[in-house]
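Researcher: Please generate the 3D structure of the following complex. Treat every line as part of one assembly.
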Amino acid sequence: MAAASGEREEVVLETRDLRKHFGGVRAVNGVDLTIPHGDLRAIIGPNGAGKTTLFNLITGDLRHESGRVSFRGEEISRLSPDEVCRRGIGRTFQITSVFRRLTVIENVQTALLSHHRRHYNLFADAARLYRDSALALLDRVGLKEQAGKPGGILSHGDQRRLELAIALANEPRLLMLDEPTAGMAPNERHALMALVARIAADTGLTVLFTEHDMDVVFAVARRITVMHQGCVLAEGTPQEIRRDPEVHRIYLGYTKAR
Amino acid sequence: MARSTVMLAAALAIALVLPLALSAFYVVLLTEIAVAALFATAFNLLMGFGGMVSFGHAAYFALGAYAAALLAQKAEWPMLAAFAAAPLVAAFGALVFGFFIVRLSHTYFAMLSLAFAQILYTIIFKWTSLTGGDNGLLNVWPPAFLRSVTAYYYFTLLVIGACFLALHAIVNSPFGYALKAIRENPRRARFIGVNVRRHQLCAFVLSGFFSGVAGAVFAFHNGSVFPDFAFFTKSFEPLIVVLLGGMQSFYGPLAGAFGFKVMEWLISRWAPIYWPLFLGAILIVVILVLPQGFVGLFERRAWRLRAVNGKK
Amino acid sequence: MEMTTSLFPWITNSPLIAVQVMSGLSVGMFLFLLSVGMSLIFGVTRIVNLAHGSFYMVGAYLMAALIEVLPGNPVSFWIALLLAPIGVAVLGGVIEITLLRRVYRRDPMMQLILTFALILIIGTLVLLVWGPDNKSVARPEALAGSVRILGQPFPSYYLLVLGLSPLVAVGLWLVFYRTRWGMLVRAATVDREMLGALGVDVSRLYTQVFAFGSWLAGLGGALAAPTVAVALGMDADVLINAFVVVVIGGLGSFAGTLISALVVGELQSFGILIFPGVSIVLPFALMAVVLMIRPWGLLGEPEE
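Model: Done. Output below.
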């Protein structure tokens, strides 16, 4: 992938020989990944390929057995999730994770408060803090009108958007989205990923996401990494992946049969 | 928000005026209601707002009460100084116990908190030379100017009112928001940069501090302290109060304390045998029928209306 | 609320280690009997039955009541011992059907609070039915004396307790590993839904398990009746002790409960010798340590 002239080809995320097993199962079996700045990287693979485990290893939710993870040159292998977040990685989860009984704007405000390290403040009226920034973020993801509603009653798609806003509140350099469009209708999916791509382009954000919908992947991703049984099977541009016979055999074959 | 401020102001005004109209007995009752309300609200900081249910909160109430009594009596500190130091002792206890308790979740959290409270109870019970053991400490009285029922009532109102203000601020502060976020979704909270364990420990210490205040107020009101203050059945009082009044609202425990103490008084007056039975029955009813407590009923209506109208 | 002396009157203060060990063992076996019901109920239904001590108390009171009512011959004791736990089992079954069934799917906190509410209710009912005075139950003549073990006088009745507890342990093992019902119960602990899908009436199974656990608690109470003061407040004593044993051993694990009971028994026995003042704190301290290092107990299973 050719970097635009004047842009540094900075490696944002790098994993080396990452391994994790559960009992006898090798969930992640020696994964090397290099994500350059500005990439929109899709990680695809059948269920059980290890995608979510890989994510959890990177973000510190799981402890790896061996290997390294480094973010912008700094090793983050041993950090806890909250520390990883503070380094500049934002994340959404496979099962939508918002603060259900807080209102939409409170969800984002809380993220902002934490980002600005004011969450130990015992006396300020939190409702008034970062309202404008929160509303701006909500506007970005198209949720401004629903700011007063409890997060839990939003439609599924809107909850996904809310989660996106929460992740963005921390001003991340790398955004990791775990199956961001799961459970959404096809046009909603494209809309959401288009939004993500737009935000990424505007803010110079690098995006790493897992996805099952091939249409979305080929429409949005700049590079694709295919995983299978814990290993990286193939990696390349969408065109290269489309033509790769191994990938066809193991993975895309499913989609065709559908 | 405005409506509840008005109601609160009205309640406060009434509370200030009541001693002029009521006999000493009722003023004592009101004092005890205030203590129970503070204890329950401190407890609810953890339960309703933090999502952590402790079965051993009596420990911090007792620490506050005993610290106040011991400092005033044995160390011969002036009452106000003892009173100011007591919650710090309770907070310290919460820090030490909480450090271990907070590592666990749910059932185990509850169980370890119960275990620590029983350990404290046993220590108090057995360390007769310091605590008087089963006989407790007697003659723990406030200085002369606070010794009348009415004077102590106003003192209680002052202290507890201040604590309520503080707790209200805390719940609506950035700290409170993060705490609620942890309650809702700890994994998500972690991934907005919150150190969940540390945050919960802070909440635990704050809760212990205010429980200690309640204990200290009660110590001087009661004139004596006993090991019972730390026994596990005492730990259930704030839980019952919170369930009665509603754990999702800030003033729920206040209403619950009022209802609880009034019921206790009424039933103890006519048929004291039936009080635990009644309490148990109410608890069961609340659990089976009214998960949000009584105040919660009102709150939920308002919440639904808000959601429907999309208003903030 | 002196736990050691009221519950374990046979703890001795002997310089002989062997005697202390034996004394600890007997305490331990009794603790096992007391606690295994709670462990069983949790293992299957995932409910920590805080009313366990109350069932024990009812068992003791029923024992006292039955002995008063039955004719004064030696057989009466054994009849009462047979009937009292059954009464408690019935009580447990009724409670399970009317109340506990409604909270299985709820927050475990709510379940705990519900069983705690039962403590209050059962306690008051006992008071209403039998009054505030202590009751006493005489030992059967055959076991009224004492024997000499290693030179120390040892009340014969405690031999009954010592003998019955291992029998109960073996009996439980047989029931759960050699009967069809026991197999179903074990299956239910692993996968309730699957069992239901296979056509087993899991609700009834739960009721039976709860009744069985209550029976065990009642048996403990009935057995203990001749040795302790049958009084209000027994429930709190036993609850705390059983709780500690079960948590240390691992909720839901028999072997864990057994080992833990013996350990706690020895701890209490030697604790009195070595740290007389604080011996009571020791089981709690051990429980706290276990909860911190291995919250699911020595032989329990981690929740996640």
